[in-house]
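Sequence in, structure out. Go.
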Amino acid sequence: MLYHKDVFLPANIKSLSPRTFEPIYGRHSFDQASAKMFALPRSVTFSGQNVIEAEVENGKTVKVVVRLPYSNSHDIVLVIRNNGFIKTAWLNSKSDRHNALDRSRYAKNISLE
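Output:
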């Protein structure tokens, strides 16, 4: 299942405690950084507050997309697999709030009451 913070994000993902790791970057990450002229972080720290998207398979989180501060004007967005592999990365303007979100792609909170 695919979740987004603006649609529904499970409590266990929202409450992730801060974690720091040395990322393994994929080719696409390097290509993006080179083309757009930005540096990829040597160390990444994020918590549930930074997660904007999460993919869960068989009850296990297999991918998160996080948005982290990068500079005064930009945030960096990282697509992180559960083994620390960063599939891709890009910069977003701090003022960009991604108003074109396709909410139909994401799981919604289902109440059984």
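Check: The longest strand covers residues 60-69. Residues 2-94 form one domain.
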